[in-house]
Structures are given as C-alpha cells and as structure tokens.
Amino acid sequence: MSAVIVDSAVYRRGKRIVDDLAPSELGQVRKLACEPGDFVWVGLHDPTEAELATVEEQFGLHPLAVEDAFNAHQRPKLERYGDTLFLTVKSLWYVDADDAVETGEINMFVGDDFIITVRHGSGSELHTARRDLEARAKVLTHGPSAVVYAVCDRVVDGYLAVMDSLEEDVDEVETSVFSAERTNDSARIYTLKREIAEARRAVMPLREPMRRFASGAVPGIHQDAAPFFRDVSDHLTKVAEMVDGLDQLLSTAFDAHLAQIQVTQNEDMRKISAGVGLVVVPTLIAGVYGMNFEHMPELRWGLGYPFALALMVLSVTGLWIWFKRSGWL
Amino acid sequence: MSAVIVDSAVYRRGKRIVDDLAPSELGQVRKLACEPGDFVWVGLHDPTEAELATVEEQFGLHPLAVEDAFNAHQRPKLERYGDTLFLTVKSLWYVDADDAVETGEINMFVGDDFIITVRHGSGSELHTARRDLEARAKVLTHGPSAVVYAVCDRVVDGYLAVMDSLEEDVDEVETSVFSAERTNDSARIYTLKREIAEARRAVMPLREPMRRFASGAVPGIHQDAAPFFRDVSDHLTKVAEMVDGLDQLLSTAFDAHLAQIQVTQNEDMRKISAGVGLVVVPTLIAGVYGMNFEHMPELRWGLGYPFALALMVLSVTGLWIWFKRSGWL
Amino acid sequence: MSAVIVDSAVYRRGKRIVDDLAPSELGQVRKLACEPGDFVWVGLHDPTEAELATVEEQFGLHPLAVEDAFNAHQRPKLERYGDTLFLTVKSLWYVDADDAVETGEINMFVGDDFIITVRHGSGSELHTARRDLEARAKVLTHGPSAVVYAVCDRVVDGYLAVMDSLEEDVDEVETSVFSAERTNDSARIYTLKREIAEARRAVMPLREPMRRFASGAVPGIHQDAAPFFRDVSDHLTKVAEMVDGLDQLLSTAFDAHLAQIQVTQNEDMRKISAGVGLVVVPTLIAGVYGMNFEHMPELRWGLGYPFALALMVLSVTGLWIWFKRSGWL
Amino acid sequence: MSAVIVDSAVYRRGKRIVDDLAPSELGQVRKLACEPGDFVWVGLHDPTEAELATVEEQFGLHPLAVEDAFNAHQRPKLERYGDTLFLTVKSLWYVDADDAVETGEINMFVGDDFIITVRHGSGSELHTARRDLEARAKVLTHGPSAVVYAVCDRVVDGYLAVMDSLEEDVDEVETSVFSAERTNDSARIYTLKREIAEARRAVMPLREPMRRFASGAVPGIHQDAAPFFRDVSDHLTKVAEMVDGLDQLLSTAFDAHLAQIQVTQNEDMRKISAGVGLVVVPTLIAGVYGMNFEHMPELRWGLGYPFALALMVLSVTGLWIWFKRSGWL
Amino acid sequence: MSAVIVDSAVYRRGKRIVDDLAPSELGQVRKLACEPGDFVWVGLHDPTEAELATVEEQFGLHPLAVEDAFNAHQRPKLERYGDTLFLTVKSLWYVDADDAVETGEINMFVGDDFIITVRHGSGSELHTARRDLEARAKVLTHGPSAVVYAVCDRVVDGYLAVMDSLEEDVDEVETSVFSAERTNDSARIYTLKREIAEARRAVMPLREPMRRFASGAVPGIHQDAAPFFRDVSDHLTKVAEMVDGLDQLLSTAFDAHLAQIQVTQNEDMRKISAGVGLVVVPTLIAGVYGMNFEHMPELRWGLGYPFALALMVLSVTGLWIWFKRSGWL
Questions:
Q1: CA A257, CA A251: separation in Å to the nearest integer?
Q2: CA–CA distance from E72 to each of E31, E91, E203, E236 (Å)?
Q3: Alpha-carbon distance D151 to D148, whole Å?
C-alpha cells in the first residue's frame, strides 16, 4: 500500500467501521458506506498524479479540481463542482529558527458521503485532528461537515499561533528601534513585513468561504454546523485584524527607525564637531607661539612654556564644559 | 457565596424584587420571574469555568458563546444563538501614569427574561451602571434591552473620555514637535499610535451591532429602545471619527517631526562650520608669521606681535559679524 | 423676554403675521398657525436647559434630540423622531488673523407647522438668512422646508468661502516652499492640515442628509424643494472635493518641503567645504615655509616672503574659480 | 445680433433648414422645428445674464440650471429638470509653454427638440464639432443625442491628448531624476501633480453620466446612441486609469528623487573628506619639520627640504590612489 | 493571399473541414459552416483597415468594435454588440535583456458560428494555442467558447510567467538593498514599479469579464465552459494578488533602501571623523614643539625629536584603538 494514503476509514454514527483501506479497495469502500449518515474519509499526502486519478475515478471528482489539488499553490477558495464541494485552505506555521512563516496546503473534496483531504507540505498534518475528532463520536455523526469544521478550526488556530509569534517579533523590533544602541532594524522590519504578507495571502481569501459556511447557506455543509463555522469565521476576522494591525505597526516602527537614524546622526555630528573643536583651539595657541616675531615677551619668560601649555589645557577644559552643558558631548 | 457573582437580582416593573442571589439559587430564581416583564440580571466577574457552566445550564446558553465569554479576548460582536443574543463589547480606560489605554471586556447573554453580564478585567465595573438604572424604574421596565443600552451607553461614554485624554496627549506631542527645544518625539508618537490602534480594535467592530440595534430590527431588543441605541451609535461614530482623525494627525505630526530634525541638523551644521571658520582663519595668520623667511619686515617691527594678534582678532570679529548676518551663528 | 430667543414669528402665505413672541406665548402661538401652510419659526441662540425644556414641551420634541441640541458638539446628522425631523449642521468660518477655521453648530427641529433653529457659537448667525427669506414670500410659502433650505444653503456657501481662504493659504505655503529663502514651512503645513481636518468633520457627514433631501424622499421636506437641495448637495460635493484636493496638495507640498531641506543642506555642506578648502591650502603653504631646514633656498630670497604670500593668494584664487565653476560656491 | 450666440440653426433629417438665427428670432424658431425629428441647436459663448434669461424663457429652462450655466465653475454632472437634461462637462487642453493644463466648461440643456450649448473659456470651441457633425447627416438625424455624443466625444478626445502630453512630461521628469546631473526636480513634480489633480477633477465625475448614457437608461438620450456613449465611457475609463497611473508614477519618482539627493550628498561628503585628507596630511609633515628640536638630523641634511617635499607629495599620491580605489574620489 | 490572415478554417465536430481560406473566400465560408456546431475561426495579425472592413462586412460586425480592433491600445473589456461579443485582452511577456514587461493585444469577435481573433504586436502568437486545441477535438466541439477559453487561458498563463520573472527581479533587488555593498537601487526599483504598473493595466480590467464568463451568465459563451473560466478567473485573481504583493514589497524595499543610505552615510561620517582625528592630534603635538619659547627643556634633549615622534605615534595608536572599540573605524 502506498504511503500516500495516510489514513482512510469508513465512519458510521461517528465510529470507524472500516480501517486503513488499501487504494485498490477504495472502489468497494463507498459501497460499505451504505447506511444514511455513513461516510468515507480518505486522507492523502503529496499524492502522485496516478494516485489522484484513482481517487478521481472512484468518487467522480471534477478533473479541474483534481488538477488544482495536485498542483497545489492555489489560493484559498471554495468551489462547487456538481454535488461536490472543493475547498482549498492554506496552513501556516512559524519556524522559530529563522523567524519565518511557512505555508502548507490542504485541499478537500466534500461529498454527501465522503471527504477526501489532500495535504501538501510537511507542516499541516491532520493526524491529531482526526484522532481528536474520533474521540468525539457525537460530532462525527454530522458527517463530512464535521471534518471540514475540524480541519478549518485547526488551521485557523494555527493562524492565531503564528500571529502570536509575529507579535512577539514585532515587540522585539520595537524595543530594538527605541533602544539607545546603534541598531540597523530595517532588514528585520522588511523580513517581518514579508512574512506578514505571506500570512495575509493565506488568511484573507479564506474569510469569504468561512462566512458562507457560517451563514448556513452552502449546500453540502450541515445547517447545524453554522454556529461552529461562525466561531471559525470570528477567529479568522481576529487574525485578519491582527495581520493589518501588525503591518501598520511595522510601518510606524519603520518610520520611527528612520527618525532614530537621523537623530543619531545629528548627535554624532555634534560630538564629532566638539571633538574637533577640542583639538583646533590649542593648535591655534601653539601656532601663535610658533610665530617668529622678535618682540614677543612671553617667549622670553622663564615660565612661558608652562604658561602656553596651561593656556591650552584651560581652553580645552573650558570648551569641554561648554560642550557638555550644551549637550554636544 | 462566590465573589464571582458581583450582583444578581430579579426585577419586576423596574423594581428589584429578589436580591443578591446565591449561585445555587439561580435555578429557582428564573421561576420567580414569572410575571410578564419580569427579568433576572446576573452580574459575573472573571468567573471560573465551573461557575459559568452552572449559569449555562440554568439559562440554556449555547456552549460556544459560553466558551467565548470564558476565554475573553474576543472581538466586539453580536451573535444570535436560538432565542439568546450574545453581545461582546470592549471597555476602554485611560491610565494617566503611563499614557496607556487599557482594555476590559463585557460579555452579555440577553434573553427575553434574563440578562447575564460577564465582565473581565478591572476597569469596566458595572456597579454604578446598575445603581443608576435602578434609580430610573421607568427605563428598567423595558427589561433586558434597557440593561444592554445602559451598559453600551456607559462603555461608549468611556470611549469618549479616552479620546479626550488621547487628544490632550496629541496636543502635547504637537507642542513638543514644534518647540525650539531638541526633542525626540518619535517614541511618544509611536506609543500613541499603538494606543489608538488598540482603541480602534474596540471601537470599530462595535459600530455594526449598535447600528443594528438602532434600526430596531434585532429580535430581543425592544423597538422603543431604537432611538436610544441611535444615540449610542451616533456617539460611537463620533469616537470612530476621532480615532481616525487623531491617527492621521499623528502621522502628520511625525512627518513634521522628521522635518524638524532635518532643519535642526542643518542649523547645527552651519553653526559648527562657522565655529570652525572662527578658528582656522587665525591659525592661518599664525602660520604665516611662523614662516622662516629672512626678509619679513613685520617680524622686526616693535609692535609686530600685537599687530598679528590684532589681525587675528579682527578676522575673527569680521567672520563673526558675517556669520551672524547670514544667520549661520 | 430672554435674549436667548433671537427671533420668532408665525408665517402665513410667506408673510409674518405674528411678531417677536415672548417665550411664555409660545404655547398659544401654535394655535395662531391654524390655516394650512402656516408655520412658526422660533430662533434660539445658546439656550439654557430650562428654556429648551419649555420649547420641548410646547412642540412635543423628543428628549434625546433636545439633549443633543443643548449639548452641541454633535456630528452633522439627520434623524427622525416621530413626526419631527432633527437636523444638525456645522457652520464654518475663517478667521484671517490666525489662519484658523472656526466651527459653529445649528440644530433644527422641523415639524409640519414649525421649525426651531438652535444656534451655538458666535459665527453662524441666521439673522440675514431670515431677512432674505422674508423678502421672498413665494419661497416662504413652502413652509419649514424653505427655512431648512435657506439655512443649509447659507451654511454651505460659508464652506465655499472657507475653502477659498484655505486655497489661498495653500498657495502661499506653496510659494514659500519653493522660494529660495530658507523657510520652515512644516508648522504652517501642519496647521493647515489640522484646519482642513476640522472642515472635513463638518462637511463630510452632511452629504448624506443633503443627498436624501435632494432625492425628495424625506417625509416632512417638500417635494418641490428637491432641486434646490440638489443644488446644495452639488456645492457640498464640490466642497468635499476641495477638502480632499487641498489635503493631498499639502501632503505633496510637505514632501517637496522635505526635499528642499535636503537640497539646501547639500548646498550648505558644499559651500562650507569650499570655505574650509580656501583656508587649509594656504595654511599648508605657511606650514611648508615654517619648516626649519637649514637648506631652504626660498627662505634666503629677498622676495621669498612676497613669493609665499603670492603663492597663497594664487592657490586661494585658483580654488575659488574651481569651486565656482563646479557650483560649490 | 449679439456675438454671444456663436451659431444656431434648425435641423431637419440631419440638414440645416434655418440658419444663423438672431436672438430675437429664437421664440419663433422652435415653431419652425415642427416636424418629428426636427430640432434646434443654439450655441452660446460666455453669455450675459440677460441673454441667458431670454433663452431660459424661450425654452422653459429651470432657473437653477440656468444659474449654474451662467456661473460656470460647476463640477461635471448630469441632472434632470422636468423634461430637460442639464449636463456639465469640463474641457481640458494642454499649454505647452508652461506645461499647464487649462480648463474650460461646456453646459448643455437637452430637450426633445432642442439642445443649447453654453461654452465658457477660450479652449473648448465647438465649431469644428458642429461642422463635422453636419457633414454626417445620418448621425444628426438622431437629434440632440447626436450633439451630446459629438461634444462628449470631442471633450474626451481632448482628455486623451492632455494625458499624452502629461505622459511626456513625466518621462522627462523621470529622465531628469535619474540623470547624473544635480537636478532639483521636486518643483516640477509638484507642478505636474497639481495639473494631474486638476485633470482628475474634470475626468472623474464625468464617468457616472457617461456610464448612464452608455446603459441606455437616460430618458431623452436615444437608445441607439448607447454603444457610442459606451465608446466614450471606455475612453474615459482609460483616461481615468492614466490619471491614476501618472499620479502614482510621480509619487514613486519623487521618492526616487529624494533617494538620489541622499546618495549625492553621501558622495559629496566623501569627496570633501578625501579632499580635506589630501591637505591635512602634508600639513602634519610640515608641522613635524617645523618643530624646534636641537637634534633633528633631517634639518641638517643637504637634501632635507626636497626630502620633506617628496614625503608630502608621496603621502598625497598615496592617499589619492587609496581614495580612488575606495571610490571616494 | 495576404499574410495578415495567419490562419482560418471551418471546424465541424472539433475537426478542421476547410483549410487556409483566402480572404476572398471568407464570404462563402460561412455558408460551409452550415451544420449545427460548425464554426469558422479567422485569425488576423495586424490587419489593414481595408482587410478588417472585408471581415466586418462578411460577419456583420459593429463598426465601433472594428474600429477598436483596428486601433488597438484598448483597455481589456467585454462588450456585446447585438449577437456578437467583443472581447479585448492584453498579453504580457517578459524580455530578459532589459527586465521589461511588453504588451500585446488580442481582440476577439465571438458569434454563434464564428470567432475572429485580431492580434497586435509580436509577442502574443496564437499558433500553438490553435494547434493544441485542434489536438483536443472534444473541447473544440464546444465551438467559439472553447477558442475564447483557450486564448484567455494561454494569456493568463503568460501573466503567471511574467509574475514569476518579476518576482525574481524583486528578490534580486532585495538582496542588493541589504548587501553590504554601496548600491544605488532606486532606479531599479522605480523601473520595476513601472513594469508592475503596466502589468496591472493588463490584468485588473480582465477580471470582470472572466468573472462573468465563470458565472455562466454571458449569452454566447457555453454554460459548460463556466468551470473552465472559473479556473482562468482563479489564476487571474492569483496574478492580481501577486501584482499587489510585489508592488507593496517594492515600496517596503524602497523604504529600506532609504534607511540603508542613511545608515551608510552615518558610518561614513564617523569613519571620516575618526580619520581626521588621527591627523589633527599629532599636528597639535608638532605645533607645540614648533613654539619658540626660550625655555623649553624638551627641545634640548638629545632624544627630544624621537620622543616627540613617539608621542605622535602613541596618540595615533591610542585614538585608533579607541575608535575601533567604539565602532567608528
């Protein structure tokens, strides 16, 4: 049996009645789901074209939808082909090591008595979702709708987790921008904006399908599931607001960063000038006593030299105090 | 009795008829509210899961709504579960000490003959709202709708107060930006923008529920209450406009701040250059009279040295006047 | 009689039939307006709560609307309370002395046979509007609608005047930004943006009520008045476009101002550097002839000193010409 | 006959049947247009109030529309007064001498059997439009609608021409911004943005009337003309997109201009520093050999002086090469 | 036969039955397409006005549509003239040599039994599209709708390819902006933004026609083709999101570029100042020992000169270390 079918089973009244089906058995399996409320859940992971073709044939899927499910890299969307719904969602997760948001894809074919989940990428596993769902037989009796809800709920919970991580990153950037240290935060802000843009692409187009499920007006999705999808939809709206909020916050942080660079440059310039001032004034004094006039009384004084040095020290000290008071040093 | 039930009572024709109920009595209490127009108002504060479960059971609330009310951190929203309305509002208050806007949350379950308010956080107490309402028995005869109005009215009044405080902060920032002093306002502007973004998250999503109440088209909210909610809705629109207005003003102030930094840097640079000029010119003069030519008549003059010093002073004075006139010093 | 009632009269077929009523007579006055088409116009200015209460009672106004009319600081809005329309408009005028836009408020209660205008602030007087209207009896026969039109028309004409003044201010700023002089325009641009934001708050929300009047679909406003309100609505749209246009122009002007600061700084820097160059090169020459080598032929030359000075002058002149040609001086 | 009536004629089946009417004949002229399909076209240019009043009376125009046509400075708009349409369009043309966009105004009163065009400003002449139209009798048989189409088509073609000129200007600015020369483009960009804003005020509000004509749903405009107005509407959409496109391009160009200023400043600063370095290092060497120690062997060398000079030249050459290699000179 | 007719044929049940028709035969050819489902596909490339006129006459096309097809430079649009659909799409392709996006135009006249494709520009050839389509006879049986789909699908695939190339360019810019090298990326960012704006003009207006085809509500486009157009529409939405995403990313990259310039300038300034410091301090020491006091013990020391030189070296070394530690060198 190919590893591509991660798990597949027939459910009756919320319970698994047939287990771990081989691909060749898929044809017969639909016949096993013969009582009202029975349904098959086939879970695929990165299937080959041939494997998908088998499933397509067994469940009478539309070739365009199958092509989409195979190619991945779709936008989140909900489409109806005859009696079958086709739903694409993007899963997101956060990789701590490089502050990056990664994207997976889950495609679902939803019929009256079957659901096929096609997963791409490594991060969006549905194993625990299935286990949790099987533990709540009552929910599973709602059929494929329950599976769709469970997957969407899990994916959107993943969004919230990603947003929390990004929020922490933004907090760090904020601290760094306003720290006294000389930091170059623009690369980090840029990267975060890019990650947020990636999250946006997953989150925003999913709102419309969820809103439609929540309205209870999508044939094939159980009416009773509406309040649950309203919950998912709510969370999604919250995620969308966080995406917008973080993005705007980063823009503001970037502007503040620019201002900080300017302020720092200004301070550096004044420090430099003060430093130069501390050297050129005694140089002038040395220049004066380096003049070759025949009649310069100081040159003949026994303490002329210490007097000149004292003059230099005095001028430097005076300038120093003055610069300190004016906040230039 | 748990401290979590802050106050709960049965009202008949606008008057409290049963007082301070223990949680165990909640079951019976609904039976006391047996005449038309009677209703129970249960006020909870940061309840435990178990306590909410009791209330859920007594009043037949929807588990998803109860979960939301327990978790808090919801977006403001209005939802219908069967005969019960579920309304979430965010309260805001301003903490003067650190110029911060803080957020609380009030969840309301509104039925025909009951209202349950679930409050989170410290700032959004409803005690005085209840007292004021009890003082106006006529209003209370409208039942739960009157309580919803009283709470929303109070919350939105709180928004207006927060906006006034933020407006003062923006005025201060504005004064600081255009003051002659060297101020670094970007951190303050950033913080204010953040606070305003937080206020926005509370204010904006509440507009839709209030608009719906004002239209009188929400079953469970008394038709007669519509003009009152229209009033709340009006105030909310005003708050929303202030939020947008302050945000834009801060953006403009930030740009002006950037310009001020540039102008200051320009002025500093010219001052510095003038200062350097005042030193290098006499240094050149000293250099000239430090040359070792055999035939330099000035060196032999009796007053050569004072002459050179005078030349230096003259050049410095001349430059000083010139720089002053050109606005460089 | 209280000074708060600026003017009040009963009109029949466009003519005043009862004059300057005392507040105590307001009750009887409605009875005087007994023929079809008769109406009362009561004009109040900054009334006390008690005075408004009298009017509220006599004309059966809604307490919430009366509260709004008393508090002022409302957003422009149109509301219906039973048979009475409540309209709030903001008047604007321009104070030349400090380039400021000031705001007044006019509230109107419009019934079938009465109109009550409640004015706040000093700038929005309605005296001349009433006089002009009384001069056109035919228009007045349309009843309260004619008064509403006259007031709105006058207010919107005021907006146009304010916009013209602001346009002049923006032209001045523009000239200043691109002048060769060193100007600091950011404060002025900021202030203008603030004034424009204030105008926006008066103008934008009024568009919806005027559009509704223009559509002729507001009960209580005469159908025949629709083309006139369409005219007001048109002018308002023009004002709204000017508000947006000026705001964007100021943003562009601000950006140009920032660029000018940068360009100026660049020029200053190059001038300063050229100036420094003009001093350090002769200083180097002086340094060379200040060296103490035994065998330096120039030092023995009879014309060595003039030669050195000439060298200095030459180098300065050469640099001067070079800097001039490169545009650095 | 007043010069204000540029041309007026009665048309029957696409042919002029009565020519160059005097204003006094306008009354009779409508009677001449007695066959179905006949219509009068009166063309006015900057008419006086009295002249417009005559026309108003003869054709039963609405006083508000006549006032608008007299005042000019209207926004483009389409309004219905009874059986008469009132259309205002803005003509634009480009004045090469000062890169400016100028604005004219054409008002049209459109009845079943007449059209009155009122033109303001010098640039929007309709002479050739009338001549071209008269050359296509078949089109003219459609009556006033054909005239409206001809005028709008001509005006929108004018917009396209203006856009082409502005596009060239933007190309020039672009070349200038990225040229190696030190250019100050912000004033030019500002002016172009202002001209584009003026074009926008003419173009954008015209889209709605054209869309309505194109939909064929405006009584008084012939159904058969719909595809022609769709063509105009298409061109207008293209103009609107060009307006937006050029505006955004200029914003981007402005940002690039700011970056160029910064880069230039940076390069200047490095050149200046390198220049200073080339002077101060030999000055230090001269300073060293200007020290007065008794035991300085070099001072006694026969070739000490040339040696010192060589040292200076060497250091300058070394620095020069180093600066060149680092890209500082 | 003119080269302008690239290919034209009659199709019956998905097969070519008449081949490579001469223009003169076009009239008869429609008669050959006499069975239900037959259709003619005429492919033109940059036709002359006369050639188009022949086609116009043979197929009864609307003159306005033919004018548009001749002029090219239309916006993408879908229009109905009687029974004929007129569709304009823009093809895009990427020219690697100069990182430019180029634009072609394809106009289509779609009737029940014919489709005429008019192609402008060199990049948008339809040869392979026709060949691929002919290889799938089943698809071709859907008639002209199949051709429209094939062309649109190919064009939108071209958009995706262009977007991928632009994405690579943006990645390169990004790398360049954050590289340590001194790069001037603003010109490149500007060019890319311009190319993206050009792509936007092709992509955005096409979405509405594709959405309408996908809804199956356009008469003349086969109902069965709806899911296929939904696929095209999906890809187009993806392209539109990429256009927006890249544009925003470039804006952010530009801001980061500005920040990098500032940071670099700051670093340069500090390096320069440190360099100057390294020279002026030993110059001061040399100045001190160049003073002419009679009593300066060091001048008489045997090792005075080496001592002074050591002092200079020491001060330079000390400063060097200090600057290195502070990150100024």
A1: 10
A2: 30, 12, 16, 22
A3: 5
Nearest CA to CA, how far is C196 from chain D (Å)? Answer: 18
Tokens encoding B328? 């460089």
Q: Is the distance from CB of E36 to CB of E12 less than 8 angstroms?
A: no
Contact B276 C280 (CB under 8 A): no
Contact residues, chain E, for D260 at CB < 8 Å: 186
Q: Is C295 on the interface with B (CB under 8 A)?
A: no
Residues 50-69 of B with CB under 8 A from A: 62, 64, 68
Per the DSSP assignment, residues forming a β-bridge with D80 are D85
Contact D257 C259 (CB under 8 A): yes
Residue contact D255–E186, C-beta within 8 A? yes
Q: Do E258 and D260 touch (CB under 8 A)?
A: no
State how far the Cα of E208 lies from the Cα of B70, in Å rounded to an integer.
45
CB–CB of D16/D39 below 8 Å? no
What is the model's pLDDT at position D287? 93
Q: Which of D308, E304, D275, D280 is nearest to C289 (CA)?
A: D308
D157-216 pLDDT, tens digit per residue, is: 999 999 999 999 999 999 999 988 877 899 999 999 999 999 999 999 999 999 999 998
Sequence-ordered alpha helix ranges (H) in chain D:
26-32, 49-59, 63-71, 127-134, 137-140, 144-178, 186-203, 207-214, 226-288, 297-300, 304-325
Q: Do C286 and B287 touch (CB under 8 A)?
A: yes
Angle (deg, nearest 10), helices A226-288 and A186-203 = 170
| Chain C adjacent subunits, 3+ CB pairs under 8 A | B, D
Q: Which chains touch A (3 or more CB pairs under 8 A)?
A: B, E
Q: Using CB atoms within 10 A of its CB, is residue D246 exposed (0-12), middle (13-18) or buried (19+)?
A: buried
Residues D153, D232 contacting (CB under 8 angstroms): yes
Q: What is the ipTM of this complex?
A: 0.84
Which of A178, A262, A288 lies closest to B261 in CB terms? A262
Query: Would you call D194 and C259 a contact, using CB atoms and an 8 Å cutoff?
Result: no
Q: Which residues have CB under 8 Å from D259's CB, separation 6+?
A: E184, E186, E254, E257, E258, E261
pLDDT band at A27 (very low <50, low <70, confident <90, very high): low
Torsion of CA A171, A172, A173, A176, to 10 degrees: 120
Contact B52, B69 (CB under 8 A): yes
CA distance B208 to B228: 15
Q: Please give the model's pTM, rounded to 2 decimal places.
A: 0.88
- Among chain A residues, the shortest Cα distance to E274 is held by A272
> In this prediction, what percent of chain A has a pLDDT beyond 70?
96
- pLDDT at position D24: 67
* Cβ-contact E227, A64 below 8 angstroms: yes
Which of C107, C100, C128 shows the shortest CA–CA distance to C195? C100
Over pLDDT 90: what percentage of chain A? 53
* Runs of H (alpha helix) within chain E: 26-32, 49-59, 63-71, 127-134, 137-140, 144-178, 186-203, 207-214, 226-288, 297-300, 304-325
What are the pLDDT tens digits along chain D (329 aa)?
Answer: 345 667 888 888 888 887 766 666 776 777 777 788 889 998 999 888 888 888 898 888 999 899 989 988 889 999 999 889 999 999 999 998 888 999 999 999 999 889 999 999 876 678 888 888 888 888 888 889 999 999 999 999 999 999 999 999 999 999 999 988 877 899 999 999 999 999 999 999 999 999 999 998 898 898 888 989 999 999 999 999 999 999 999 999 999 999 999 888 888 888 888 888 899 999 999 999 999 998 888 898 889 899 999 999 999 999 999 999 988 87
Which residues numbered 268-287 in B keep a CB inside 8 Å of some CB on A? 268-269, 272, 275-276, 279-280, 282-283, 286-287
The answer on pLDDT for B298 being more than 80 is yes
Contact across the interface for E230 and A291, Cβ inside 8 Å? no
